[in-house]
């Protein structure tokens, strides 16, 4: 870790902090590991976890990656206009202007697939139509773990479709409706892919998560297979998508799954330190400058209040990474304008020195910075705009 700090400091010596970097060596190693864990099935890269077109292009140029998973219709159309030929919008949309554009442009209609889990979403598309282009549709199936006859539910609150029969009903509704074509099925196991099972200092919690995930995985394969069979009775499917960074190897092992999704595993933010099944290399970091030395064992850096989305808690805060041995002040946390840091390592820092941090999540870091400085060894080899740097703030 100390050698990484030397590299990053040397690479960015000509740049003032705050700034953000992506270590290309770590990024590429993480990409290779995702492909290895996918066992020959293509990895669809989740754009919300990258939010930088240059890095999306870099990973899509690698063998083993195919297609983008977008997070808003506006973003999906933007990516398709810029040349991405296959964008799966992973969340339903109510963007009327976007649907008007999609239904009137053959190139966009070929490239973008929209997500549906309710007939009312189809009505939104029809009400916004400005052309006759056929809309490609993917259905989302809920694979949350349900116990005690459904009275206990573990998983993200996403699609209302959790039994194959209801999924088939919606598939038939899509098939009957002019102007739509059912092409895909997505079933995302958030309780497996997005929950760490090896949280330091919490052995009981980690053991409970491992038990839950073991039970969930034992049921997932059969449930997903039933869902796919139900939909294929209605329409031929081009793809069946599942998984996420934390479950790539398990999801890819299922016969009915044709592709897996991943994105956070490229940057490896803090929340992905807590998995027993894989180890990634932190690739995305941000640096803040030391601007005060209030006393022994304390420095203050400029900025830092970049919490991640999700249920509020300390695990959603960024954490000082390099130099090792620094920690947030318990009563202040990561501040809006300044952040005090405690620890013996503070006494070796001077005004103007950089402290390197890791964000709790992946792509959300890019909403705070206009550019990512791409580091190869001890050099910045490219400065790439983030979505924000291109003037795009989709959410």
From TrEMBL:
GO terms for molecular function: D-serine ammonia-lyase activity. It comes from the Bacteria. It comes from Streptomyces cinnamoneus (Streptoverticillium cinnamoneum). Residues 22-267 form the Alanine racemase N-terminal domain. InterPro entries: Ala_racemase_N, D-amino_acid_metab_enzyme, PLP-binding_barrel. GO terms for biological process: D-serine catabolic process. This is Alanine racemase. Pfam families: Ala_racemase_N.
